[in-house]
């Protein structure tokens, strides 16, 4: 039994290792070719690294998907009313939840005390807006969703029930961000994204949710939109509470839909 458990853990973790090894090698190659990384060019390099890692992780995802299709049957995507509803709910839920969690964390002292977060934040929002939109808001979310929801979550789900898989995959997603601020944000967002994947069965859903959350964060930083809500003032707290309430309502609705679908399938 212990040998089986070690094998299961390896099956879950080695795609992450490959993701970071390939990304690190790509980053090193870009350093050799383009020179020293600065805040201005960091996102360009991260964007390129993300693009390079996607084919490697996509191979794992497609192999796992073939197995799931054999066991559960292949699901073909068709843009119908159900999918349009999925898209709108995903954008609304990820957008409000991402803003609410960002606001809540910004109001705590942890942001000022985390040097790792401050450095990461400066790099994340550094450089030209076009590269932030292409990198932070498109390529990197797709790459991360492929590995953490498309592969890691699905493999954990083979061995555990949904709640354990949600928590375990989200903790891994938070830990790899390597500082407490991003750990909290990534872990909470990771639970939501994995649930949306579980509920709909379509990979585009968590990818769209991640893209939405990152895009809103980039736009807020670039334009100063809703900056007041980062502050622990009466207005900021009220607005954040409203965001949490809306996000909670949307999540509750989707949990209710998921439970109804599960009950129907069991009958």
Task: Please characterize this protein's 3D structure.
This protein has helices spanning 2-34, 42-72, 81-106, 110-113, 115-124, 129-159, 162-175, 180-200, 204-223, 234-266. The two termini are 34 Å apart. It has ten helices and no strands. The mean pLDDT is 93.
Short description:
This protein is an all-alpha fold and 267 residues long. The protein has helices spanning 2-34, 42-72, 81-106, 110-113, 115-124, 129-159, 162-175, 180-200, 204-223, 234-266.
Sequence-ordered SSE layout with sheet pairings:
Blueprint lengths: L1 H33 L7 H31 L8 H26 L3 H4 L1 H10 L4 H31 L2 H14 L4 H21 L3 H20 L10 H33 L1
Helix pairs in contact: 1-2, 1-6, 2-6, 3-8, 3-9, 3-10, 6-7, 6-9, 7-8, 8-9, 8-10
Instruction: Give the overall average pLDDT.
Output: 93
Helix content: over 70%
Rg, Cα atoms, Å: 19 Å
Q: What form results from the Cα inertia axes?
A: globular
Number of helices: 10
Spans where pLDDT lies below 50 across 5 or more residues: none
The N- to C-terminal Cα distance equals: 34 Å
Largest sheet: none
- Tally of strands: 0
How much of the sequence is in beta strands? under 5%
Helix and strand string, N-terminal first?
Answer: HHHHHHHHHH
Based on helices, strands and strand pairing, what is the structural class? mainly alpha
């Amino acid at each position: 039994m212990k040998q089986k458990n070690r094998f299961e853990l390896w099956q879950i973790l080695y795609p992450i290792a490959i993701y970071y090894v390939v990304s690190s090698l790509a980053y090193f190659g870009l350093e050799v070719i383009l020179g020293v990384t600065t805040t201005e060019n960091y996102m360009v390099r991260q964007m390129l690294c993300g693009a390079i890692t996607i084919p490697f992780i996509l191979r794992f995802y497609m192999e796992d998907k073939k197995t799931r299709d054999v066991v559960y049957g292949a699901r073909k995507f068709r843009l119908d009313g159900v999918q349009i509803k999925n898209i709108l709910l995903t954008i609304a839920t990820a957008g409000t939840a991402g803003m609410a969690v960002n606001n809540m964390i910004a109001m705590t002292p942890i942001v000022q005390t985390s040097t790792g977060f401050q450095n990461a934040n400066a790099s994340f929002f550094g450089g030209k807006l076009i590269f932030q939109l292409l990198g932070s808001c498109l390529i990197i979310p797709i790459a991360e969703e492929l590995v953490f929801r498309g592969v890691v979550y699905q493999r954990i789900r083979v061995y555990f029930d949904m709640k354990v898989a949600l928590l375990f995959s989200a903790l891994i997603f938070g830990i790899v961000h390597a500082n407490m601020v991003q750990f909290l944000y990534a872990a909470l967002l990771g639970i939501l994204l994995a649930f949306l994947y579980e509920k709909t069965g379509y990979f585009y859903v968590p990818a769209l949710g991640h893209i939405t959350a990152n895009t809103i964060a980039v736009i807020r930083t670039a334009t100063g939109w809703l900056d007041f809500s980062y502050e622990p003032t009466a207005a900021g707290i009220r607005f954040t509470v409203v965001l949490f309430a809306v996000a909670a309502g949307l999540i509750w609705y989707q949990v209710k839909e998921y439970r109804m679908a599960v009950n129907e399938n069991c009958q």
